[in-house]
Amino acid sequence: MKDSQLENGEARYKMMGFGDIPNDKILGLLQANGYRGYVSLEWLKRWNKNLTEPGIVFPQFINFVRDFCD
């Protein structure tokens, strides 16, 4: 999964839940339809040095997804 927001006509990666993609609704639909598999975060700082540090982003992603697992 990833999230982004349009800024000056370009997509900019955002932490999960802070962009324009309705990831909360997507996770809700997966759960409502019985999906019990994995979800993962795509955060490619190696190729985009402007991204927030993984040590901040991954715990936030885990908490975002965990809300749908309970």
UniProtKB/TrEMBL annotation:
InterPro entries: Xyl_isomerase-like_sf (IPR036237). It comes from bioreactor metagenome. This is Xylose isomerase-like TIM barrel domain-containing protein. Gene3D superfamilies: Divalent-metal-dependent TIM barrel enzymes.
